[in-house]
Fold:
Amino acid sequence: SAPVYHGAPGSPRGLPGAPRYGDRVRPTAPPPLPCDRPTPAAHPRLLGFDRGRVFLGDNLPLMRRLPGGCCDLIYLDPPFNTGRARTHQPVRTTLDADGDRTGFQGRRYRTTALPPSSYPDRFDDYLGFLRPRLRQCRRLLAPQGTLYVHLDPREAHYVKVLLDGIFGRDGFLNEIVWAYDYGGRPRRRWAPKHDTLLVYVRSPGQHYLDLEAVDRIPYLAPGLVGAAKAARGKVPTDTWWHTIVPTRGSERVGYPTQKPLGILRRIIQASAPPGGLVADFFAGSGTTGVAAAALGRRFILADILPEAVAVQRRRLVSVPGVTFPQEACGPWTASSGPVAPAGILGASGPIAARGRAGTEVVKRG
Structure:
């Protein structure tokens, strides 16, 4: 069938404010925000790259200088505000009959601790930190664009209210629950084994979503659906069962908050058209860039930590057309001028501008 625009599910939602329980309200569009106006300092040359670009520095000045409507998909994985440092302690293991660890088939291994990586994860005003960045996300999204905000249960409900005020309650598309079963189990509460992804769209009823492009998953009870359906698998729902990155898996790169490649592949397949621009402003280990490059999408990655950018470089250095910062030159900031120095952003390539009128939309299967 012919491609069609995909409207937001359900009936229109109410005002972006917080009416009292039982009040009758008439759904309206959210009030315009200051960030909806074009940013005079926006410089399209910041998009001068072939495949992808990595930025080192505070993401907010960068977001303010990017041209509005440039992103098809934004994925944000901000710090979770756990109140403690997030640390990863990598180790090297070598086969040793007198080692301190037992491995596969009872073999003994000796472990050697390597330098740890860590960052603080505590904010006195977490919502105040996120608010200007989420407003910039709305400005940067194309009319058919989608935002995914990755959180855990500590802050998800507060951020949901904040996003309702920025995008309007009718901009809310889904709450996705990523469930996993790994790690310890406390004895005084139910073991927390899920993250939350809040999904919002820039223009309700115009967003891009291609569920047929998403890798299918097995049925939980294949005997109930018949052999043909069982072999084809099913499209995922809003509850995603997916393992974390295994501690000893080949995908592991040694970054504390690395997310599985399968999660980012699913998001990009569904919500970014082929050739579209994907942005991750808390890029961490760079999984968004790895998934985008493999799926034929362009990408922007940004992180304030040189250690994160170093990991991104290792994972993406073999991808043609990706430019990297030089950590020795210092971070990029708004005061760096229309375009940051070549040592920070890398050599500028052609501006890959794409018209919005021909943007692909969802196919009904």
In short: Helices lie at 59-65, 126-140, 156-167, 227-232, 261-271, 287-294, 306-316, 342-345. The first strand starts at residue 52 and ends at 56. The longest helix spans residues 126-140.
